[in-house]
Known about the structure:
- The complex is a heterodimer.
- Chain A contains 15 helices and 14 strands.
- Chain A is of the alpha/beta class.
- In chain A, a hairpin with an 8-residue loop joins β1 (6-9) and β2.
- Chain A starts with 5 loop residues before the first strand and ends in a 5-residue tail after the last helix.
- Chain B is of the alpha+beta class.
- Chain B contains 20 helices and 22 strands.
- In chain B, β16 and β17 form a beta hairpin.
Amino acid sequence: MEFDTIAAISTPIGEGAIAIVRLSGKQAITIANRMVSGRDLNQVDSHTIHYGKIVDPATNELVEEVMVSVMRAPKTFTREDVVELNCHGGLASVNRLLELTLQEGARLAEPGEFTKRAFLNGRIDLSQAEAVMDLIRAKTDKAMGVAMKQLDGKLSKLIQRLRQMLIETVAHVEVNIDYPEYDDVEEMTKQVMFDKIGEVYQEIERLLAMAKQGKVLREGISTAIIGRPNVGKSSLMNSLVQENKAIVTDIPGTTRDIIEEYVNVRGVPLRLVDTAGIRDTDDIVEKIGVERSRQVLKEADLILLVLNNNEPLTEQDRQLFNLIADLQTIILINKTDLPQTIDREEVERLANGNPIVATSLVNEEGIDQLETAIADTFFTGNIETTDLTYVSNVRHIQLLKQALRALDDARAGLDADMPIDLIQIDVTRTWELLGEIVGDTVQDSLIDQLFSQFCLGK
Amino acid sequence: MIYDAGHYDVIVIGAGHAGVEAANAAVKRGAKTLMLSLNLDMVAFMPCNPSIGGPAKGVVVREIDALGGLMGKVIDKTYIQMRMLNTGKGPAVRALRAQADKPLYIQEMKHQLEQLDLLTMRQAMVERLIIEDGICKGVITETKAAYYAKSVIITTGTFMRGSVIIGDLSYQSGPNNQRPSIKLSEHLEELGFDLVRFKTGTPPRVNAKTIDYSKTEIQPGDEEPSHFSYETKEAILDQIPCWLTYTNEQTHQIINDNLGLSAMYSGMIKGTGPRYCPSIEDKVVRFHDKPRHQIFLEPEGRNTEEVYVQGFSTSLPEFVQHDMLRTIAGLENSEIMRPGYAIEYDAVVPTQLWPTLEVKNIPGLFTAGQINGTSGYEEAAGQGLMAGINAAARALNLEPLILDRSQAYIGVLIDDLVTKGTNEPYRLLTSRAEYRLLLRHDNADIRLTEIGYNLGLISEERYQMFEQKLASIEQEKQRLAKVTIKPSAELDQLLMDAGGTGLKEPIKALDLLKRPEVSYGLINQLASSEQDLPNDVQEQVEIQIKYQGYIDKAKQQVERMQKMENKSIPENIDYDAISGLATEAKQKLKKVRPLSVGQASRISGVNPADISILLVYIEQGQIAKRPKEA
Lengths: 458, 630
């Protein structure tokens, strides 16, 4: 049997020090070879492992250091060529790797697809057939369920709105075609088409940008730790890092000397940003001024404000509360091992509904509660970080990217002054791709739209 | 006393648009064929609008022609007006439509059929099928004649338990007061057929002498008419126009005042009507904020004064129809010649058919046309053609033909019917075809002539012409790829006049033609071909070059789907035995019994997980076979 080349993360996300991205299919080695610099994987022996640097062929940017296993067909799990990229276990790095494989031509594997291939290629015994089918059923259903759940209400609504816009446009073109003498609908002009495409395009770009910021669990949620001197900011950073076995990544190529540390807190990837060197200067406000601080803090998705349980609130503390008004914040009252002199009631008033957690970082107390608070903030409840959760995210991003490409094609068609019914092909494609995100690809809805939107019948 | 009235290869019940194509195709494949009609004066009668073609439907007519069918040839000889629609749009959606001379169309069609040596035409009412051992072996008429055949095709249109409704008047009838077919419908029910009740309607016809055309807008035909058939050489230049007028507030008031009398709204009509062809009362109710609706006045022929009031289909009482018409500009003094009416009829749920249009549970029996839940002459004709081809194949042990969705609109039509069924009378729309850029009316011959030739439907002479055309297209494309066009002030002027920009560097003619403002005519002016190429060759060259990017993309799309289409599902598959299939999927799959995984994937209620499991199951069967073979 001949299949296309698939890729997926084959280790649980964020739970190990090492993660594996696996490729299987005819193009597996070719695709990996385009990403790995310093070694020609076509030349290496089968079933060998190699050190390599992953470089994004599109940007020439160094992405990651990996160990690459190359296994040629047929003695592999799937009986196809298989490449495994072993990288650091952080969400961000493994995500990035998977995306690169997709960028270079692999297709995101369906749930259970490696097993399915193994079976189809005769690798798995026949007696296991039923188990395989059950597995596919379970995984697919679960993936779909998770994919649906994963869509937060807002995103889902936005996508529905974009789809509605697109289908109205498409229906309009279709009516012009199927009922050419129907005088009631004005002819859909290229200008209108251009405007609609532009609007959808912008929204999708914005969504992708958001995904990039980490809202869709991609690069981590940028998190700033602030507080007066000696309240325990460094201890907090260290305990989060130790607790979660973070990988310290010194991201090359950035001109600012920002150190970012990735930690995975109950499935929430946090990017702890040492904003303008919190660890160096104890007073961010003093160092860079109020306005600038506000700016820096606004760029963060999450702020951890640390207070000292053993001291009354100071003017500086109140100033910090001012700074974080309207920002997503968790307030830590640290040093509960020492007697309480802080005015809890005032803190609660100032917190303005933001969660408050009491900790004693030196005694490693309260970290659990903090982690719960973080998870709650981003998932408003419980979210399982299984590979499925993650896959559906990448799937969404991939679909959005494809949708953008389809719109690019539509724009190119408009530029080339192609007939509107040809441009419409790419617009319809965009509609279908967005439909895959919200799990709705029923073709007949176009026909329904046609008849509900227009009074037809010559 | 039933008597043996003769033996045939194929029997066609009905001589409407499906019946005539079925009979013709069966004969062309060499089958001795009998066509039974209730009334031989009504062969290929058009009970509704006097036009053939239009978006999607016009492409079907060309496809029928490319497969040796009659519709294109006959309309080309009998049109009163020909018009190319969507000329301002892309090549994929251009559509030819003809206004027909109804009486002449009947005459010409009957004449064509009478030329076929292997065809017997007879006036008769079929009441029963002869079924032996579950296989259809023939038919019995009301005059007790038993005709035997290896294949039987039912093309009875809206005649099955037909019932005409005008206001509160209702009587059993076929269209236009012809006899309905009652017993056959009951017989099908006895045989276990799943039937549905559909409804359609037609507007009143008025006398042209009572119309004041000066108050309407003229809708002329094209000055240089195009044609449906690739064989037609001569144009009819003396064309007759149609006329456009509008309903108004007054018309709508009368409709609203009398809504209770409409058979549609009084509850008399139970059947499901088509959304794309609503009655005028439906339009007024559903789109009440629209101040007016278009009404086209279409002559029914050269030698008749009857005019079809397009857009005015109704089941309101006759006197209301009269009052409504008289509110319309140009129709103030109009006289109705025939009132509009709604008709309800039995249709076969088409998921009971194989893609060959053979009934799954009764080998030897085929159904085609409006009986399968479609509407439209072209949809009927396309199915008739395919049923004829496949009924003859069964009778004569020849190869059957199933067209897929990327080959023809006919393929889309039949796949939709047998895979998804339909909840309303089904009409083809260009939006139903996912590969419509490939299914153009200009390339129907390129898509299908070879197939038609291999099945014996296309003559040797025509096939030679076709091959010649293909060669010319290829040659010209190659020439344009070689010829270089150099920049010049003169050329820049031409390009700018056409709305483009000047040329900076020499360019191949082929690449210049890709520019939107450059036509083949201009290219030919700059680098003329040695021989004078026919228009259709020029058109192909231009379309194939100009839209190559889109066409290639569509072809890739087809290729991706083709893998699934080619993966056939064994006929004896036991869906109940497949662990993991969802219950709904099992039920649907058992009902539709798809022939390929591609077809299975289009059944609503069968989701991707089910398809995965199905694939695994099928592969498993093959794996199981492997060791035995070895």
